[in-house]
Amino acid sequence: MSAPLFEKVAFIGLGLIGSSLARVMIAENLANQIVASTRSQKTLDDAKALGLIQEGYSDPIEAVKGADLVILALPVRATQKVLESIQPYLSENVILTDVGSTKGNVVDAAKAVFGEHLPAGFVPGHPIAGAEHTGVHAGKVDLFANHKVILTPLPSSADWAVEKLIQLWQAAKAEVICMDVDKHDEVLAHTSHLPHLMAFNLVEQLANREDNLDIFRYAAGGFRDFSRIAASDPQMWHDIFFANKKAILNAVDGFEKQLATLRKLIEDENSQALMGLLGHAQAARQHFNHMLANKPLMEKNKVTTQQFTILPGQKKFQGKFTVPGDKSVSHRSIMFGAIAEGTTHVTGFLEGEDALATLQAFRDMGVSIEGPKNGEVTIHGVGMHGLKAPASALYMGNSGTSMRLLSGMLAAQKFDSVMTGDASLTKRPMERIAKPLREMGALIQTTGERGTPPVSISGSQQLKGIQYDLPMASAQVKSGILLAGLWAEGETAVTEPEPTRDHSERMLRAFGYDVKTEGNRISLQGGGKLVATEIQVPSDISSAAFFMVGAAITEGSDVTLEAVGINPTRTGVIEILKQMGADLTVENERIAGGEPIADIRIRGSRTLKGIHMPEDQVPLAIDEFPALFIAAACAEGQTILTGAAELRVKESDRIQVMANGLKIMGIDCTPTDDGIIIEGKGKAGEWGAIFTGGEIESHHDHRIAMSFSMAGLRTSGEIKIVGTETVATSFPTFTALANQAGLPIQVAE
Ligand code: S3P
């Protein structure tokens, strides 16, 4: 066993936080000796009886002698006095930390005692954890697990001290964040101190009314939720409000200003602006909730929050379904609606997280947007020059489309901006869009390790049009350049190696902007304007594809997907499935909102056959390959895919990740640089199990998760798919529809 982290630990104060940390130290064997000093003899006796400390002292001087770690776990206001008394007795290389909820005043107290030369081992800290009860008995070994601990190292703090404290808190299973002292106090003033102050204030306001009895008697859940924290300890909050006075007063000023704005909107009955404000706040709350819930996704380690389980057994697969709106079209409807003149109405909008990230970004840039509600969104366009600087970095979640298209738009704005994303997006190449934008005169940096996000843009550049030959078939890069071109001088033209989805071109025209398509060359003139319009978003063929494949591999299935977008730049999956012999018909073709749509009916009447997938269909089916690989595994004979290297830079490396999963499920396959070879296990006329089951890692990729779900229709063993939370980025109703069709998927959060 390795030596414990600390020789002798001295707690000064042993309440909830101190005694919880002592419990962690014992459980994790972090110290050879733990002692404490508190004013209450009973606490010391109890702590000894609980086995938390070896020695207890009423005088902190006795406790700190010879200690290599001293933890101040007492009310912040007592800090200076305690430091004065223990200072002469501290060991030379002692690590000195605290757990107080304000930091500036702890540092001030230390400076008053030590002078400007603070000890190298002094590193203030703040575990953000608490519980209903206080005292040595209330401590819990898991109090800090999955909670944040903020350390605020000072310029004088030594790395070894910070390192050891990080190890200590990590042993408590906390997430350690380092921040500077002022930032800590400012953040806490807004996120904790101001809400407490407001809760106390509201309860006080109501309590002072003459009819207070009635008010409290009839108060409902809203009041209860809002005022819960006003039940906290007045002494503690009194101390915190003084201790963090400057930052709290700033937060209160900000609150008063915002409140005055809200008051005025109500007074003036400014309906549109009020809806905008409330909608923005509501969306921000959802967005941040999601960020918090998906926090692990943003980290390097592989923590996932949801998994699917599918049991073996014969299944039928039938019904008529409407899958949600097209992701590509939904993104663009918000972007173009935002910079148009007038009000744009959108129906069929995809309420998935990717499109919502775009929506939130535009709200953050001052655009008033109502909805989405049942797929309806109303965007009050601000015109070509009306976007405002966002207050902070724009969070794009999992969405490459948002980041690449917005790169183009933001490069042309008057303000600076930064875009970030989750663990998957953070690995995706952004130089492919940054490079042509730089040629247009943009100041744009990909600040990640390998040309990856965050993307940082300096505004106020007058862009100039370019002719760009796209090195890869990418609708995102094409669109990003064309969007920058809206603000550029002269003509911006993109030539693509093969046609890719043309939703940007179509929708710009629908907004009244002239876009020319001559063969593979798409061009527009900068300096025009967009005029608001109505957008009807078709169902997403990329989501329909999972059900198409599910039906194609299941005996006797009969599935109709209604009103699916069949824009010819998206129908590769239909063509490829037909070439594989699927019983697939496209019915009831019509035009809706400028895009062709149709009902697609697929029946499981014959075994698919392996093919060499046509390379000219690759860009037209680019998102459907994970699902098509499942079809190929069920086909008779070999399927070969070439010319699809782009699959390696999608939400995951879709060639490798699919190959790994297929192999786990008993399918013989060989990934290649630009494709894959899959040995289909199907036999004409046989409909038995193809897959063996197994545990699949989806690598934060929605389409990997949904594709392997379809394998559940032909499996002899249980399939577990780990990390399925990203399914909500593009297809939030996926499991509900799969269940309806006859493929039960158990979802565990
Ligand atoms: C998209 C383009 C494609 C596609 C993505 C959506 C778009 O990406 O894979 O899901 O909306 O423009 P690439 O441009 O990287 O091929």
From TrEMBL:
InterPro entries: 6-PGluconate_DH-like_C_sf, Enolpyruvate_Tfrase_dom, Enolpyruvate_Tfrase_sf, EPSP_synthase, EPSP_synthase_CS, NAD(P)-bd_dom_sf, PDH_C, PDH_N. Its EC number is 2.5.1.19. GO terms for biological process: chorismate biosynthetic process; tyrosine biosynthetic process. It is found in: Cytoplasm. Pathway: Metabolic intermediate biosynthesis; chorismate biosynthesis; chorismate from D-erythrose 4-phosphate and phosphoenolpyruvate: step 6/7; Amino-acid biosynthesis; L-tyrosine biosynthesis; (4-hydroxyphenyl)pyruvate from prephenate (NAD(+) route): step 1/1. 3-phosphoshikimate binds at residues 327-328, 332, 474, 476, 623, 650. Residues 7-296 form the Prephenate/arogenate dehydrogenase domain. It catalyses: prephenate + NAD(+) = 3-(4-hydroxyphenyl)pyruvate + CO2 + NADH; 3-phosphoshikimate + phosphoenolpyruvate = 5-O-(1-carboxyvinyl)-3-phosphoshikimate + phosphate. One of its GO terms (molecular function) is 3-phosphoshikimate 1-carboxyvinyltransferase activity. Its main location: cytoplasm. The active site is at 623 (proton acceptor). Phosphoenolpyruvate binds at residues 327, 400, 428, 476, 654, 703. Keywords: Amino-acid biosynthesis, Aromatic amino acid biosynthesis, Cytoplasm, NAD, Oxidoreductase, Transferase, Tyrosine biosynthesis. Catalyzes the transfer of the enolpyruvyl moiety of phosphoenolpyruvate (PEP) to the 5-hydroxyl of shikimate-3-phosphate (S3P) to produce enolpyruvyl shikimate-3-phosphate and inorganic phosphate. Belongs to the prephenate/arogenate dehydrogenase family. Monomer. This is 3-phosphoshikimate 1-carboxyvinyltransferase. The lineage of its organism: Bacteria, Pseudomonadati, Pseudomonadota, Gammaproteobacteria, Moraxellales. The gene is aroA.
